[in-house]
Automatic annotation (TrEMBL):
<keyword id="KW-0012">Acyltransferase</keyword>
<dbReference type="GO" id="GO:0016746">
    <property type="term" value="F:acyltransferase activity"/>
</dbReference>
<dbReference type="InterPro" id="IPR000182">
    <property type="entry name" value="GNAT_dom"/>
</dbReference>
<protein>
    <submittedName>
        <fullName>GNAT family N-acetyltransferase</fullName>
        <ecNumber>2.3.1.-</ecNumber>
    </submittedName>
</protein>
<keyword id="KW-0808">Transferase</keyword>
<dbReference type="InterPro" id="IPR016181">
    <property type="entry name" value="Acyl_CoA_acyltransferase"/>
</dbReference>
<dbReference type="Pfam" id="PF00583">
    <property type="entry name" value="Acetyltransf_1"/>
</dbReference>
<feature type="domain" description="N-acetyltransferase">
    <location>
        <begin position="11"/>
        <end position="146"/>
    </location>
</feature>
Length: 146
């Protein structure tokens, strides 16, 4: 992840396990991001859910769910960090890990994300090119080669 901001030293980012399901759901729910338990279970089984885990408490402090809408595309469907831990690089570390996972999969050519305009700087700092989403007025779409 050398072209990404430095990862926080007090968290590790790793694939979620079925035991992380409830924590992932809680982090997403607290951020008011909609996802259903079946999708979370499916994506955990596929290895496309990442968690940021505190090295001090071993608790989940952030989560990212990726989906594969096309065989050559990994899409960041949701990323959230517990409110008390925001602004410390945890979200960046999660997205960077998703991009790295995409880069390590020869089938994946691009990593995408759809987000609100106020997150533009966040995704640009991670190397995403940004465009308006014509299908969803006001939203933005980011793309980054894997």
């Amino acid at each position: 992840m050398s072209d990404f901001p430095e990862q926080p030293t007090d968290v590790t980012v790793e694939p979620a396990t079925p035991a992380d399901r409830l924590d992932v759901m809680r982090v997403l729910d607290a951020a008011m991001l909609e996802t259903d338990a079946a999708t979370v279970d499916d994506r955990i089984d596929a290895g496309d859910v990442l968690v940021a885990r505190s090295t001090r408490t071993d608790g989940v402090v952030g989560a990212l769910i990726a989906v594969r809408p096309d065989p050559d595309r990994l899409h960041v469907d949701a990323v959230a960090v517990r409110r008390a831990r925001r602004g410390r690089g945890i979200g960046s570390a999660l997205v960077a890990a998703a991009v790295d996972r995409g880069a390590s999969d020869p089938a994946i050519e691009v990593v995408t994300a759809e987000f609100d305009p106020e997150l533009r700087d966040f995704y640009e700092a991670l190397g995403f090119s940004i465009a308006a989403d014509d299908a969803n007025a006001g939203r933005r779409v980011g793309r980054r080669s894997a």
